[in-house]
Structures are given as structure tokens and as C-alpha cells.
Amino acid sequence: MNNEKKVVTLTYGCQMSERDAETLTEISRQEGYVTSNDLENADLIIINTCCVRESAENKILGKIGDLKKLKDKNPNLKIAVSGCMVQQPGALERLQKRAPHIDIWTGTHNLHEFSGLLHRSAAGSKVAEIWQEPQETIESTPLAEKGKLQANVNIMYGCNNFCSYCIVPHVRGRERSRKPEEIIEEIKSLAANGCREVTLLGQNVNSYGKDFDPPFDFADLLREVDQIPELLRIRFITSHPKDLSDKLIQTIASGKKLCEHFHLPLQSGSNSILSSMNRQYTREYYLSIVEKIRDLVPQATLTTDIIVGFPGETEEDFEQTLEMINLVHYSQAFTFMYSKRSGTPAATMNDQISLDVKKRRLQKLMSVQNEESHQLRQRMIGKFYEVLVEGPSKTNPNRLTGRTRGNILVVFNGPQEVIGSLVSLRIIEAGSWTLVGELETTE
Ligand code: SAH
Ligand code: SF4
């Protein structure tokens, strides 16, 4: 129907940000909009922002600027900007000045108010509503979309860690865990609607439930989720190394659907940098956890986040980071150049590193990691892996694609019927980026 109102949502940043974008889209749907990808013909555009690095902010500012053209063409178009960038202290005024064509500004703590904001905007006023603090743990808006194979589920909000480079605790507030029964209920309802894989989300899932009295352990939550019959797989991110418990490692070792993948952000391999980052672990401690994981869950994959060019990082510090890549054997590393975030302690530290040095270190880091990933994929050749089939491959729609329990992408030739189910694949080829498998049996 042509008179349907269309909403297009663009989201930036982490999975938690993506989940927030889904909530805003869902609320728009409840308000009568249908989802669309067609920016030119949209009636409502939502830009859900990220501010973790300056590069993300610049990209988003560019996009917000571009949308002015659409607003000039269609004055009835509503544009809403939400999320972390707007939530930064003092950011709203600056943004409003820069982008007067935006109709609705909103932050990270009041997603559930979005329908009210849409109504106020429809009545003709510009709207800006940011809560400085979260007022309570507000329950996620359940997603009505059926047949979605994978879903992200927030188990907690916020972060207490204050790593010295990071803006997240400043825009997402302190840790608040959702009640286990609410989480289980949300997952059961997703599973009843066709979802087969959930990823439990938190900035540090290992401190889930520590804010309850009595505390509730993350590993116990995983055990409960593992009992939900229709689910095939359970993942979780992110694990702060300082809080990863033996119980969690044992739980992953003994769980049925708990995927053997740990995303364990290292950030740096140098103790002096880890200390000025306020990460609260040493490289030796980190390696001791890796050893425990390798002992108890030998098939586990490890992935990580690493920052190069943190203030004061010397060549020796950087060499120690490179060394960790070769010691841990990550299957994948998300690598970043340090980016100054105003209001964080690292932004005013001495010895900021030049862009040239950061770029050189990033290149080197990426090439060392690429070699590790390549070797890891080579070692997979000839072996069998359980893969949850997600659908046609993006690069070659004639092939299907899915992920191993360790979260490694595999493409293969197979019938459409296996989409959404677990198959066993033998790895037959490992290119620079793609792993090719061959279908063996269907479960
Ligand atoms: N809570 C998660 C990660 C949140 S942000 C954790 O602690 O693991 C995702 C990643 O962005 C971080 O792990 C870090 O590597 C990177 N990051 C955060 N702030 C950054 C900054 N100021 N500059 C560069 N990278 C940053
Ligand atoms: Fe940021 Fe550190 Fe919290 Fe992760 S743990 S969100 S890096 S402050």
C-alpha cells in the first residue's frame, strides 16, 4: 500500500546499540510504521548513534548532514537521532546547533519513551529528551518479528569499569542486571517465534547479577538458558578478563548449546599500559585464564579487542601486544587506533601517540593477526564442524553460509531446506577470507 508510513533505521556501533535500534524500530511499528530500507521514500528515519571512537562519530555526523537534502525535499519527513553520541555530556546543544533539521533527539536511558516523542513531534514541535541517569532497569521491548533465526538479548545495561579510554560508562550508566526470569521469558518467546540462536549481551556479562541481593551468577543464568528446548545455540559477549570465573569455563565445558567461544578483550599486552588503561589484570593473569580455557574447553575459540597507540605506548609495549597474538592464537581480533574521548582520563594523559605511529602499529598488528587467522583456518581443513545454517552467502548467493560453534564463518553448497538447522560440514578449503565446507550429514 502506498499510504503506509515507512521507517528506516540506521544503526552504528556495538550489538547493544543494535538491540536499542531494534527496540526503537519495534516501537515505531507499534505506532503504525512499516520497516523499509528506502531512505528516499521514508516517513521516519532513525539514526541510532555510537561515540566509542571519533571515526564513528565523524561518519555519523556526515550521515546526519546528508539527510538534510531529504528533509528539504519532503518536509513531512521526521528524523530522530538517538543513542550514545547524543547521551554524551554537553553533546545535545552542540548537535542541535549543527543539525537543526533533526526533529527528535533522544538518549540511551529512555528508549521506552519513544512513542511519546513521536507523538509530540507529529504535533509539530521539535523534541529533545535525554535522561542524565537511568531511573530503573527498564525492561526490553519484546520484538514481534517472527522467524528470526538469531537474536540479541540484553541481560544487563551499563558498565562499572571505567577503563581510562572508554566513554561507555559515561553514556550508558552503571551496571543494572535484568531479572533472570524476565530474560528467560524473553528468550522462550523468541524461541517460540522461530529463533534458534541467542546472544546474551552486556558490556561485561561476567558481572551479571552482582547487583542483586543475594547475587545471581552468570553461569547459572547460562545453565537455565541451556534448558530451553527449541534453542540450538547460546552465545554471550563481552567477558571482561578480570571477572571470568572458573565456574563459567566449567559451565561452557559441560553445556549442550553453550558455544565454545570466548570474546576476551585484551586491549594491550603490556602491563604498564594495562595499568594506565585501568584494566585491572596483568598479561600473566590473562594468559592464566587462556590456559584454563584451553585445558577445560580445548575446542574453544578466542577472539579479542586491541587498542594500539594508547598514550605512553612504547615500541616495547607494542611488541608485547604482538607477542600475545602469537601466544593466545585468536581466531579474530578487532583492532583499533586509540581515539581521544573527551571526559575520559586518557584524553588528558601525557605522551599522546602520533597518528602515523598509530597507523603503522595498526597495520603491523593486523598483519600478525591475519597470519594467525590464516593458520587457524588451515588447521581446520579435513575436520568436521557443526554449523548453524544462516542462509545464502552474501558474496555468492548460490552458496549457503553459517557459523561453527566457535563463531567462524563457513560457506558450502547445500539445499535451502537446511537453513535454520544444524549441519555437519567437513572443511575442504581455506582461502584468505573464506572457509569452504562440504555437507556431510543433516541433523
Ligand atoms: N565492554 C566491552 C567493549 C566495549 S567498546 C569490553 O570491555 O570489552 C568495544 C571496544 O572498543 C573496546 O573493547 C575497545 O577495544 C574499543 N575502544 C573503546 N574505547 C576506545 C577508544 N577511546 N579508542 C579506541 N578504541 C576504543
Ligand atoms: Fe568500556 Fe572498559 Fe566498560 Fe568495556 S569494560 S565498556 S572497555 S569501560
List keywords for this structure.
single chain; about 450 residues; alpha/beta; Transcription Regulator spoIIAA; six-stranded parallel β-sheet; five-stranded mixed barrel; 13 helices; 19 strands; binds iron/sulfur cluster; rSAM_horseshoe; S-adenosyl-L-methionine; 4Fe-4S; transferase
Describe this structure in words.
With 443 residues, the chain is α/β, with parallel strands linked by helices. It has four domains: 5-129, Methylthiotransferase, N-terminal domain (Rossmann fold); 135-259, Transcription Regulator spoIIAA, CATH 3.30.750; 288-379, Transcription Regulator spoIIAA (2-Layer Sandwich); 384-439, Nucleic acid-binding proteins (OB fold (Dihydrolipoamide Acetyltransferase, E2P)). It contains 13 helices and 19 strands. The strands form five sheets. Strands 2-1-3-4-5-6 form a six-stranded parallel sheet, sandwiched between helices. It has a five-stranded mixed β-barrel with strand order 15-16-17-19-18. Strand 3, helix 2 (54-73) and strand 4 form a beta-alpha-beta unit. Helix 8 (218-226) runs parallel beside helix 9 (246-254) and helix 12 (315-328) runs parallel beside helix 13 (355-380). The longest helix has 26 residues, at 355-380. The two termini are 41 Å apart. The model has no long low-confidence stretch (mean pLDDT 94). S-adenosyl-L-homocysteine (SAH) binds next to strand 13.
